[in-house]
């Protein structure tokens, strides 16, 4: 039996949920490989790797450098909260959201999958309750999270018999800096034009949301207890999600809580 400590890989580990997960894992004595374009908050207990998850060559090199190490947990958490309406959001916004929220996540899963199989590990992907909700003002974010969830459903079936658990983590509001997209250079070209109800709501609501460190501890505890694939961590999101599906099945029009069609 291997005497190596448990190993977790966390993307988007430099802030928000990813940073909180990294700290919670360290508190449990887990060895953490952390990836983020800004690793300045991470201390020397972490194997920090500073690059953008869109850098496929860097991610491939990192995965290959640890080919002999089984991975117990992969937290594919990196994502961007790109706002904007469907027609007015610049093409750059759509591309940015797609590359980070979908393509980079799938690449991460593909490159680390052999490590997960070896470790009979768990792949936890931060999706969002938004993937199954309906509201205006967050076209790129909602669409890419929905696409990611659809791909993960396919992976769930494919993973049967592999020994790897697949979990689509669908949180509601968590107190992070997800709305502070101005810290990224890409935000200059991807900024939506005009007022945006989603951004206005999020800036206010996120300040009162569950702290990220408390959420991260709940996630690890949930994995210990046997988390489901569709993992809704915030019960308050369910009425919104159920409302959207009721409208899809019975009304034929999108459900929206901002008073306008999505």
Automatic annotation (TrEMBL):
It comes from the Bacteria. This is NADP-dependent 3-hydroxy acid dehydrogenase YdfG. The keyword NADP applies. Keywords: NADP, Oxidoreductase. GO terms for molecular function: oxidoreductase activity. Belongs to the short-chain dehydrogenases/reductases (SDR) family. The lineage of its organism: Bacteria, Bacillati, Actinomycetota, Actinomycetes, Micromonosporales. InterPro entries: NAD(P)-bd_dom_sf (IPR036291), SDR_fam (IPR002347).
